[in-house]
Inverse folding.
């Protein structure tokens, strides 16, 4: 706790320091590479590497295709591993881009971490400026596809007979596309991302029904599924589970599960953005999801953008001399306790929601209001002054 408070203070004082090492490698397959594509790829990689900590290079394989018949602008097929050294949770598939970081070694020597099909039939805009209204921003687009390879990846599948499964996608379902790496066996093992998906106000999707049943098929196709990440993801979304895409009818490869709901704008992994739009930066909840599944996040980003959500908390006056009022929009049953701590992390007062607290007896200086809930903590700075 003490370390976290110190970090918070430093960030407020000095701001975020961006990483400069992208740590991505790209292999591009295609006879014609559009001008500007490579620099846009590198820009996207740079942007992702500002958020996630990369110690093992992430190996991206790109297939450039140009086919008006393909129903996609891009499609990512992810490599995965389970039960590796340092795997946080066994019997779930981790994307190799993440598994390699966790294992601190290259588990998939000779294989790429992800294959990204890019359909050049799409009118892409390659640049860092504002795309015209009839073009798709390539940086936003490829950050989205890389995001799938980082972990927004489900092994949920519903076959043409409405039979649903996790970890049971036959290679034939990918046809006419193929992977550069061996396709995972049909071992009924879900991805680590799948572990956290719940049916609205109900159970986890994994285990809600037997694998290879139409009941599971209906659940995968259900229109209100959520990513419920109790440790980190929900706290990046005001304490609520994060709504996933659903009901678009594109469910056969789990597509409805591995995107955020279309209403979630300013996010990379939703389809709120389109022609003429740019995002170019993951939303807080997307970082929360990546952290939930095991990614180490740039600590500056974590503290500054996730742990502190000022919209949910009101403190006034601040700075304060004797009495300050505290109010949080969190439901009262969600709050376990609210404590005032000094910069050493010592508790100096207990705070009640929607109430005044007297700090006239405390020394002038910086304090922290710590809000504890079953799922997460929030920290806000309070200045005691004259
Ligand atoms: Zn996608």
């Amino acid at each position: 706790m003490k370390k976290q408070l110190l970090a918070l203070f430093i960030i407020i004082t000095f701001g975020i320091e961006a990483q400069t090492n992208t740590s991505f490698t790209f292999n591009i397959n295609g006879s014609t590479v559009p001008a500007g594509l490579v620099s846009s790829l590198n820009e996207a990689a740079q942007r992702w590497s500002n958020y996630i900590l990369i110690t093992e290079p992430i190996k991206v394989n790109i297939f450039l295709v140009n086919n008006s018949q393909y129903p996609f602008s891009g499609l990512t097929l992810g490599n995965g591993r389970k039960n590796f050294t340092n795997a946080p949770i066994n019997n779930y598939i981790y994307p190799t881009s993440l598994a390699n970081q966790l294992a601190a070694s290259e588990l998939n020597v000779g294989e790429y971490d992800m294959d990204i099909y890019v359909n050049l039939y799409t009118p892409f805009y390659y640049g860092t400026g504002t795309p015209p209204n009839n073009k798709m921003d390539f940086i936003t687009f490829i950050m989205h596809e890389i995001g799938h390879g980082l972990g927004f990846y489900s092994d949920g599948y519903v076959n043409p007979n409405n039979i649903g499964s996790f970890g049971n996608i036959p290679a034939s379902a990918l046809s006419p596309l193929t992977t550069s790496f061996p396709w995972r066996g049909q071992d009924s093992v879900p991805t680590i991302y799948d572990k956290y998906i719940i049916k609205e106000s109900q159970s986890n999707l994994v285990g809600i029904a037997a694998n290879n049943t139409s009941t599971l098929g209906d659940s995968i196709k259900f229109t209100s599924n959520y990513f419920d990440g109790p440790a980190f993801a929900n706290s990046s979304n005001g304490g609520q589970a994060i709504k996933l895409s659903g009901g678009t009818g594109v469910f056969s490869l789990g597509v409805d599960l591995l995107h955020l709901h279309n209403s979630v704008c300013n996010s990379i992994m939703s389809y709120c953005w389109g022609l003429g739009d740019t995002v170019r930066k993951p939303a807080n909840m997307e970082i929360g999801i990546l952290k939930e599944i095991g990614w180490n996040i740039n600590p500056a980003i974590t503290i500054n953008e996730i742990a502190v959500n000022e919209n949910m908390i009101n403190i006034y006056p601040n700075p304060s001399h004797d009495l300050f009022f505290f109010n949080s929009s969190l439901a009262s049953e969600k709050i376990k306790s609210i404590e005032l701590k000094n910069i050493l992390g010592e508790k100096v007062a207990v705070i009640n929601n929607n109430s005044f607290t007297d700090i006239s007896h405390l020394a002038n200086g910086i304090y922290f209001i710590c809000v504890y809930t079953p799922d997460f903590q929030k920290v806000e700075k309070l200045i005691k002054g004259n």
